[in-house]
Amino acid sequence: ELRSAGTFAFDTETTALDPMQAELVGLSFSTSPGQAYYVPVGHRTPAAHPELVEGQVSLGEVLEELKPLMEDPSIGKVAHNANFDLMMLRSYGIEVRGLDFDTMVAAQLVGYNATGLKQLAFQVLEEEMTPITQLIGTGRKQVTFDQVGIADAVPYAAADADMTGRLRTVLEPSLEERGVQAVFTEIEIPLVPVLVEMQRNGIIV
Fold first, then answer.
1. Full-prediction pTM beyond 0.85?
2. Distances (CA, A) of 204 to 81, 97, 196, 199
3. Residue 97 to residue 82: CA distance in whole angstroms
């Protein structure tokens, strides 16, 4: 379905906010508004509750299937803060090609002050998304996403990909209206993989 769609929105769920140290917990995909999928690969739960990770897929098998798809430049990819997702997947041997839209970058270019996906979804789409703290908690009792049961993770993660795809349909025409389409397609989007390469390798100062 992802291949035949020609373009799709995707998102990664991880154990941390630093992509160089985080581990992959799952990936979500959406090809049309209101429809999305979550592929869990790294959920961990206490041995007493195996039902919380029922349905998990082998990380190796998922990466093997996804690599040709994600590295195919003819298939368009949409992400929110693609820098993070590209960094994550590079750590697992996948070099994403075909990135053609980043909703965070587009939102900044057309003048939205919010950069987070949930804030943008509320501002642009009037959709209120579940906050991450509802799943992982706060303070000393906070856990990482890999400790969230799959049943709870599915709607949260799938919504990330779904809203990313929906935001594109609204933000893309705005780029043209604001006269910044060329800046977006010729400078900002090609710069994302360059930044990823710089961040992974570091620079000499």
1. yes
2. 25, 27, 16, 12
3. 11
